[in-house]
Amino acid sequence: MRRPAFGFTMIEVGLALAVLAILATLALPDVGRRMERQRLQGAAQGLAADLAEARFEAARQGQSLYVEARAAPSRDSGWCWAVARSAGCDCAALQACQLHTVRSADWRGVRLVEGLAVTLDPGGTAAGRQQTALLESSRGEQLRVEVSALGRARVCASRGSWPSMPACS
Fold this sequence. Notes:
31% of the residues lie in helices and 30% in strands. With 169 residues, the protein is α+β, with helices and mostly antiparallel strands. The protein has a single domain, classed as minor pseudopilin epsh domain (minor pseudopilin epsh fold, 3-Layer(bab) Sandwich). A five-stranded antiparallel beta sheet has the order 3-2-1-5-6, with helices on one face. It has a four-stranded antiparallel beta sheet with strand order 4-7-8-9, with helices on one face.
């Protein structure tokens, strides 16, 4: 008596792989877009977190700290931001005045369109010539990081629909 064979035929395996390949091809653009949005959101929230940390450290140390974000002059050039002990501490090169530095290489596909320059005082207030930064993805979606007079940073959606972000006013 012969026992029935269990398993799949080569035709069934080939069809299953073909269906999986088609589904993967359809999903790839969405996955790429989602990853790009996550990088943009991560960069914006990273800047907001650095501002919050600098505000806390200014109060803890009893001295002003400075956060300066230098926008890219062109689409191909690098941008950066730094938390520093002194004003005008350029983030383009490592310097002793910097406490923390972030560069464009840390956030591929994200561009800093508008930089900021904020002084965070020990009393918790913020002052500066430009208290907002604008970050943009390669697809044109934008998030803005705003610093209030009380030194609190918030992230809002400047362009594009973001379910987890409020729209900028």
